[in-house]
Amino acid sequence: MKKTIVLFCSLLLVMLVASLEQTSAQPTITVIQGSTHTYSVTPVPNGANYDYVWSISGGTSSVPGTNATTAGILWDGAAGQYVITVYAVNPATGCAGNNQTLVVNVVAMGGFTLTGPALVCPKTDNQTGDFNVIVSYTGTGAWSYVLNDGLTNRTVTVADGTTSSTTTISGYANLSSTTQASHILRITSVTTPEGTVTYDGTEANAANHHITVNVQPTPATSGIVQN
């Protein structure tokens, strides 16, 4: 009897470990609350028409549809962890496949703002044209962000306890003497203790994550001549 109990407990432990390993192996992504994304699986390859049965454990009011790629999923629910599940069904036979799952961490990161001058002077022989932009964060903990200045991405890491970060943008040249040139500066991703999210412009507060900087016309003179 004692051996039976020990064997049963050992088997139960093995099953529990296997279950935990399977759970921890689930792919996980992080998205921002208020953002919209689509999700896809590789279609069944034998050419038959299949329905794809999607389900989401919460976090959204969107309806995924029955295709291999969902309709847009708006994460308009509370921040938290949710599971997307899909399996394929052959409508002609009723045969169904195995579940595929994806864990989605929905995080509230609405506390970021990007501010800077709307108008800047161009880079010339007599001025650098450099200007500053400020990224502010209302959360806690160390954080970092990636800023695209219209030409390249730059990553800035900010220490815990610091709520704003000032970044200097190198001056832009404006070779036209009559029109201004526009550059869009965007926060493209942010990492906080809650995770990392990428901003693609579809999130609810996207207006806080980019600014347009207009480089003024360069005052142009012609070459020097002796009068």
Explain what this protein looks like in three dimensions.
The structure is a single chain. The protein has 227 residues and is mostly beta strands. The protein contains one helix and 15 strands, in the order αβββββββββββββββ. It has two domains: 27-107, Immunoglobulins (Immunoglobulin-like), CATH 2.60.40; 112-215, Sandwich (Immunoglobulin-like), CATH 2.60.40. Strands 8, 10, 11, 13, 14 and 15 form a six-stranded mixed beta sheet that branches. Strands 1-6-5-3 form a four-stranded mixed beta sheet, with no helix packed on it. A hairpin with a 4-residue loop joins β10 and β11 (153-158). The chain starts with a helix and ends in a 12-residue tail after the last strand.
Strand content: 35-45%
Q: What is the tally of helical segments?
A: 1
Give the topology string: H per helix, E per strand: HEEEEEEEEEEEEEEE
Q: Return Rg in Å.
A: 26 Å
CATH class of the largest domain: Mainly Beta
Contiguous low-pLDDT stretches (5 residues minimum) are: 1-24
Query: Rough shape?
Result: elongated
Q: How would you briefly describe this protein structure?
A:
By secondary structure, this protein is mainly β.
Task: Itemize the secondary structure elements and their pairings.
Layout: H1 2-24, E1 28-32, E2 36-37, E3 51-56, E4 73-74, E5 80-89, E6 100-107, E7 112-115, E8 119-120, E9 131-137, E10 143-148, E11 153-158, E12 164-169, E13 181-192, E14 195-198, E15 210-215
Parallel strand pairs: 1-6, 8-15
Antiparallel strand pairs: 2-4, 3-5, 5-6, 7-9, 9-12, 10-11, 10-13, 13-14, 13-15
